[in-house]
């Protein structure tokens, strides 16, 4: 179905005690914790693999003058050494997937320059160390700040990089209260648990890749382009993924290299990135510089909003951090501009990470709102309430559902917001205490998806989709949707994902996975319901699917009997339609944080945190809660510790491991909770659900930063808020 009109009553409505929404455990959980859910690198389906190791460039810009592989080629166990001199012919770059070893040019530190394949991992790694290169070194451009004069407007991606409404400059200069501030956010790395890994193997002119990937159909198309194959000759398998956070939205060089080398040596090749390689061979979130200007009247009504963002892109790329996009929909003001500019730098490839755009955009904007509230001596919630728009302030269309104000009000009540004091006025021994809040908003996209299901004569329903579960609970919520639709217990649903041999699906990213893939499955189940009713010759009016049976009127049939000896199949498909244009669709929320700041050392400790969210129908209360607090935890990381520090001389990240790149651990997150307010969004999709994956991170760090201000009276505009900046 195409989403062209609001969804009316569905079989999912009015069943509060149903399977859907219940906080059931992840159905693959046992396999995962017992090590029986193989990640890409662990699969045993491809026999006798050789091991690859990537040699990376030690310079950020220049050309390879010579590459000596003699010692590596004759090292123990080595089967093949691939460089730009002997790499097989390749096709075209697609999206952010480049041909590998494609020439002498080096564009960033960590760019693959050779690939060593050996009998064992140790032999490959040892031989990789024997490859010697000489370069003609150029001076790298590796500082966004230094490159500000040459920033330019990137090509529109999904949305125009710029927007303008009314007369911002005029309204801003005439405003009674003005704020003009610059915030910076550093480069950040996904830090997902499972590194990128691929095992590639060929059969004739078809290649299969067991690979760590979030979006299989996208990966299939881009790898096919780079390998010069039709997409149907490329199969990706990714049944279990150990976290993504955006790092696996596209195929990385290890997938291309494994495929190329496997073709040459006619044997499966497996390769994983080391943790250090993750920082440079993999993608990262660019650093940003953001200027925010707010003009308000004395009552705090915004007349002018400007949000400008500068970010860095890799050479030959125009990916940009859409920091200001959410600002277009958040608060009312007649005069407004948003603007995105980029500079191309010799830094590794910048791409999407954990709520691309909103995460760092709200780190800046929601603190600027806090600053404005302070100038106006207004409660930060009250300031936001006064600027609550009646419709989307730029698109001029209604919101599908917008419960930002109820989220803030309920959060304030649950958190004890009324106990918040003036800045720098609450002490507990050496600790200065403070509370902060932030709004949260994350776009809700719907992506094309399809599903195939089959009810077998044993009464087991099998679901197949080229969808992924990156640790978020997709297997489980899909089983819940199918079970709810067909009245089957969860034990009788088999969900098979992670294979491009199955019907194409959205994959996991952009908070669109559950809604998109789930809706395709919903449509397939609806189709199967009709088929079953026909087969049973039952009146669809008032038919009830429950306990493995379908009942209507005074008759009831077992689904297993209706399936017949061959089973019954159905397909479903969902596409975004006009609803995208007719309504502004976001998931909303509000964050509340309390921190203590050591008056002597400046050490910042989170004390407690609460998020109150709305995301339409909640498909599984436990996985939704986990998604939310996971996102909030990353918000704390972004506020207080995460920074991939670029060495501008060498264009490399100096803290390229998890010992030096800090993400929060349990001791950093003493008390954190998330609450969902009831909501159904009938403009979103047939499930009436909206995305939650990235909502938790949006604004979370700003609430922490605003709490630090409230504790200390010191406003830090340079993330992360480390203790040296407090003192
Ligand atoms: Mo997300 S950054 O789209 O995985």
TrEMBL record:
Record-annotated Aldehyde oxidase/xanthine dehydrogenase a/b hammerhead domain positions: 34-139
Matching SUPFAM superfamilies: CO dehydrogenase molybdoprotein N-domain-like, Molybdenum cofactor-binding domain
Family annotation (Gene3D superfamilies): Aldehyde oxidase/xanthine dehydrogenase, a/b hammerhead, Aldehyde oxidase/xanthine dehydrogenase, molybdopterin binding domain
Chain intervals for the UniProt region annotation (Disordered): 1-21
Protein name: Aldehyde oxidoreductase molybdenum-binding subunit PaoC
Taxonomic source organism: Methylobacterium trifolii
Gene coding for it: paoC_3
